[in-house]
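*** Backbone structure tokens ***
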Amino acid sequence: MRLVDCILREGVRARQGRVLCPRCGVIGGGAGGVYRDGPGRPFLSARPVRDMLPGAPDPPGWRWGRQPGPGLWCGSLLLLLAVLLGVSEAQSGPGGAAEPGLNVYMSEDEVRRLIGLDAELYYVRNDIVNHYALSFNLLVPTETSSLHFSWHAKSKVEYKLGFNVDNPLAMDVPQTNISLQGDVPRSLSVFRVDLFCSGKMDMEVTLIMQLNITISSAKNITVLNFKRRKMCYRKIEQEVKPPISLDRNSTRIHFDPVNVAPTTSTRVFYISVGVCCAVIFLVAIILAVLHLHSMKRVELDDSMSDSGSSQGLSQPSTQTTQYLRADTPNNATPVTSYPTLRIEKNDLKSVTLQEAKAKVKDIAISRERVTLKDVLQEGTFGRIFHGILLDDKDPSKEKPMFVKTVKDQASESQITMMLTESCKLRGLHHRNLLPIGHVCIEEGEKPMVLLPFMNWGNLKLFLRQCKLVEANNPQAISQQDLVHMAIQIACGMSYLARREVIHKDLAARNCVIDESLQVKITDNALSRDLFPMDYHCLGDNENRPVRWMSLESLVNKEFSSAGDVWAFGVTLWELMTLGQTPYVDIDPFEMAAYLKDGYRIAQPINCPDELFAVMACCWALDPEERPKFQQLVQCLTEFHSALGAYV
């Protein structure tokens, strides 16, 4: 489902008054307000309430309404306003006596398919142009390849149709099933516009469909510009088409079994077999070459893929607009059953120390090039240092690094796990990822893992430090800064999802930050030792981040990108609470039952309703109903821009 559908369905709780929507079942505002996941199912409750059954009397002090709460955003409110104003204009008309004429609109089914609203969207109704609807730049879902418009005219109306695409390399020129010039049909008709991405690059494409209308009696031209935008992606694997053989006359070859001799048939058979074998061999070579070179194209592909999503982001503000305190209770919310996903197993215990060292041998460097400085974090057996790496060719050049290593009492299995988990992001290149750089695995020395240095360190520790400082401290951050951090994390996870990489342990503790508030996702090597309160063993001799895991991952050990989306929702909650621990009052052994019963963490203090609605979408029990990371990037980017308008 689309993210805007989820947000519209989840709704937001009203800050003032009490509102109950009979359509979506959202009750908002007031003490003990209920956040519902559909009619009759309380989603978040500060105290027990009765189900709102059909025919039941209304509780005192409650009123019925259809608005999902103040401040609904992400474009749906603007489009709904356009629909209402368009209907109002059409009904009022000049003098109320205008003769019905030209109508151009999107049907209710088409509007529901694109944005999830149950309404017709008129661009022209009875010759009256709805400028509000035309000014709205509608986002076309990536999976949607065609648009449908309904139109008809009572009298003769000529039209001329044209298209303008801002990036022809990313999207082909749209095609229609009607001619580009002619007369508007007298009866109700539907024409289709096909939007096909070229698959050559990752880019958000803006399309303008220009429809020039000429009424024969007046001979005046009315120009209608329909604005659309769509995210196009590069095809990861090029489809190899089998060669097409033609005869000398460029037609198919006809065989006459009566007149062809047996020797000729045998010869043709052997030639065909030989050609097929050659083609298969050639295809295998091409695929092997593409696979070997695919990793070299990753950085270029990704820099283009996220440009459309984050180009509108401003740099984090150094001035504070709202300081957050995060002393929130653990309130709750019921949900339904969950499906079965594919199980991905990664048994680290089966990897030996020698195998782990062999996997990182190609990035190993001499221990003499590394100088250890301050200890940044320390656990029972692990440490993280601020280190210096000397350049191999010019020792005068120094590069700051994170250095992960172990103490003398570390066991062989602990060393093996550190090396293995450090390779989770290896070979991936993205501005919001921090993969392993080098290792030191010399005999007789404790292994070291080196990563590029980020001078403000671990994100979770940074957030907790910001919570403790005074409001006038230069390190205090605004709500807009926190949303900007969330966007960066979503961009990095979107890249991992496209590469079919599952992180399995996304959290603020596994991110780092620098002085410009740039956030990067890291692996989870040593996290169990450095943050022991975030991991729990549930009797299976495996420490897991129970409070960050989705129900299917927690119960069945089924991992997917949808599970990472769940963890992102918890990470977003960490950002808005400045590093508070989620579900802190819940026993880890009862987390599965707690989630099955539908309970979730509550909306943090000072967290906007719209942002909490995004979190709630990430915690949908059905993985198919959770948003994709690319949708989260788009939605958070628009919310970040909306916040910037008020700073």
User: Anything to note?
Assistant: Residues 8-75, 85-98, 238-262, 307-346 have pLDDT under 50 and may be disordered. The first helix runs from residue 3 to 10.
